[in-house]
Amino acid sequence: ALVDRPPHTVMHGDAHPGNLYFRDGQAGLLDWQAVRRGHPGRGLAYTMVTSMTAESRRECQRDLLDVYRGALAAAGGPELDRDGL
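RESULT FIELD:
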């Protein structure tokens, strides 16, 4: 499967709204016991499925993919196109 092939990044493994916190305008993640290495698309898909309705995902998917791709590249991660996610 595409999500099993490189590139790989460090993944939180359980990024959903219950594991998010916000402080001073910044977001962070709690509960790092499921951390692992994997394709960035796997973590993004998990977060979107556990955080959004199917309708919301359809409406926002393109924008979210673009924001995620930009943030990933800006943080030193791989530069992926939408199909690569």
